[in-house]
Amino acid sequence: MPKITFSNKNHLFFQSVKNSVEDYFQNNRLKKTGNWKLYVKALILIPLAVAIYCWLLFGNYSWPVGIILSGLFGFTLVCIAFNVMHDACHGSYSGKKWVNEFMGLSMNILGSNAFLWKIKHNIIHHTYTNIEGVDDDIANGPLLRQCITQKWMPIHRYQFIYMFILYSVSTLAWMWGTDFHKYFSKKIHTTVIKKINAGQHIMFWVSKMLYIFFYVVVPVCFLGWQAWLTGFLILHITMGLVLSVVFQLAHVVEKTSFDSVAKENKVIASEWAIHEVKTTADFAPKNKVISWLVGGLNFQIEHHLFPQISHIHYPALSKIIRKQCELFGLPYNYYPTLRQAIYSHVQLMKQLGRRNHQ
C-alpha cells in the first residue's frame, strides 16, 4: 500500500469543530457514548429479530406470510447492524470497552466478522474515504465503476440498472466470499492485515460455523430445504439492498469528491477533516423515522468527523458542523430527502457508465 498523508500541520478547521463540539457536550453535561435512547433500540430490535426467527421456525403461516417475515427478518438484522453493531465497533455504544466488544460481536451473529470489519471500516475507510486504490468500499469489482479513475468497460453503460442486483447479493458475497478472501490473504484491498491473534482465528471459525448451524442447518431441519432457500435468499436480498444503498448514499453521490492513489506515495492537499467533509454526504436529516432506523447513518459527515461519538448525538452535531463549514467556506453536502439522495446516486453511476466520462 502506498503511503498517503494529509496536510494536517495547520488543521484549523478540525480544531475549531472539535472545540465547538466539546463545548456542546460540556455545556449540556452529556456523555459522548450511547444513553437510554440507544439502549432502547437494542432492547427493541434484538428481541424482535429473535421473535421473527422463532416464528419462522415454529409458526403456522402461509407462504406469502413467510416471504414477508423473511424480508422483515432481514430488515431487522440490518437495523441491528446500523444501530447496535456500528456504534459498538466504533467504541461509542458504551463507555465500557467490554460492552462495546460484546455488542460489536453482533456483526458475527449477522454472518460477518467484527475484527475484519473494524480494519476495513474504522481504519481504512474512515481514514482514506473515497480514495481509489485504498478505500475498499469503492473497490467493488470490475462490474461497478464508482469513480472516474477506475477503468471503464462497455458493460458500465448499464451499471445504473444492474447495480441493484449486485447490491442484493452483496451480503452473500461478503459473508461467504470476501470475508474468507480477506482472512486467508491477510489483506483488505491493498492494505495488509499485520496480525490475527489466536483468539480472532477461533472467533472467525466458530462464528462462521454457528452461522451455518442457526441460519442453514436448523431451518432446513424444521422447514425443508426449499422453504429455507427461499427465505434465506429473501433475507439476504433485503439485507444487501438496504445496507448497500445506505452506505452508497453516504459517499457515491454527485456532490461528493473522490481521489486516487497508484503505486507512488501521495500527499493530500487538505487536512484530513476537510477531506472527509468533501467526500461525504448526509441525507434526509429531518426525517426522524429514517434516522432511527439507519442508526444516524444519514448523518455521515458527523459520523466521519466524530466516529467515536454515538449516533444519537448526530442531529445536534450537524448544526454545529454545518455552521463551521460555512465559516471556513467548505461545502456541507446533503440531500433533504432519501429519494433525492437515491436519485443522485443513480445519476452519478449513470454518468460514470459513459465512456467519455473520464
UniProtKB/TrEMBL annotation:
Record carries keyword Membrane: yes
Q: Which CDD domains match?
A: Delta6-FADS-like
| InterPro entries the record matches | FA_desaturase_dom, Fatty_acid_desaturase
Keyword annotations from UniProtKB, A to Z: Membrane, Transmembrane, Transmembrane helix
Keyword Methyltransferase part of the UniProt annotation: no
Q: Which residues cross the membrane?
A: 38-58, 64-86, 160-177, 209-228, 234-253
One matching Pfam family is FA_desaturase
Domain Fatty acid desaturase span(s) in chain numbering? 62-335
Please give the name of this protein: Acyl-CoA desaturase
What is the species listed in this Swiss-Prot or TrEMBL entry? Niastella soli
